[in-house]
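Researcher: Next entry: Kynureninase (Phyllobacterium zundukense).
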Amino acid sequence: MDDTTIKIDAPQADLADPLRAFRDRFELPEGVIYLDGNSLGALPKSVRQRVAKTIAEEWGEQLIRSWNTADWVHLPQRVGEKIARLIGAGERTVVAADSTSINLFKVLSAALEINPERRKIVSERDNFPTDLYIAEGVAKQIGKGHRLVLADTPQDIPDMLDEDVAVLMLTHVNYRNGYRHDMAALTRAAHDKGILVIWDLAHTAGAMPVDLTGAQADFAIGCGYKYLNGGPGAPAFLYVNPRHQGGFRQPLSGWFGHRAPFDFDSFYSPSGSIEHYLCGTPPVLAMVAMDEAMSLWDDVDMESVRAKSIGLCDFFIQEVGEFAEGFGLTLVTPRDSGQRGSQVSYSCDNGYAIMQALIARGVIGDFRAPDIIRFGMTPLYLSFAEVAQAASILKEILATRAWDQPEYQVRGAVT
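Model: Predicted structure:
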């Protein structure tokens, strides 16, 4: 279904928005339209107070006692349980820990151990590069002829699932174009061939409902700093289906993954539960910020989040569609909301400079090489009026060639 055929009225949509009250729970700079929450979520107001309290009272006054009195030691499990509700996972199947890349290393290594006679890891060429790099590294480390095989398009994937594939490793929503895979269908197709499936939920968790249990996913990973608003470099998370917990080892056998870490045994004895996928001591301040950010989601209906996400994306596509062709913008995000995440992306010449000009005007999106300008739609704090204004500013920048200034051509370390 092409939802963009339904004309959206911004003021009416904002008045009818069941999520509009959540905007006041975030710190948002005056004069900024923030369309980059799919890279770094905004700061929930309560996080500032929670982290300050942790520093002043728990660390400052209780010192090391806070591992017990404030229960720092179980932060990975507590945060994991809060995330589990948003991704359709059961109790004691999710922990918050480390980074997305490290968690992928853990679960991919475990998956290859479960399927030891198979040699292929299937992914797609347009997957986020760190996932591909980690897969290459794991294959080389094992050194038994494992190799990464890449699909050129999502449509190529089903035909690549042969009897030598050990793992299908996909990002649920593509970071460049916003294409969303059919999780249940692809997981089912892989399982029919004896293939395990790892889903990267970096652009999914907090943006739409997910049902890992219903899809019978084997493993999932994701980050905490995008739609979950956990802060820059926030702890990531990982999910392990109960049928894969225990009986084999993930390679990072740190002390928090031990069955009894405070027995201080000289030899490793892995936990038989989700704690097996923990490694070292959790970063308490970052984990506390993540814990507080996740508390905000207690009051959020994910179906409302998805409905607003679809509306915001459709509206932006409508508004930009009125002038896109005339200025060389090509929509690369699916128009069909069923195949789309919570972003809208266009390919264009001079994309980097155009985005810098937008940022200078207070519209913060981002650029992805070689030619993608990307706009993230974050339903908890973005309004339809802001989307309309962002499209208007984009049109003005293109019409006046305001992007064609020397200061917009020089690329920084982060683009």
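Model: Note for the record: The chain has a mean pLDDT of 96.
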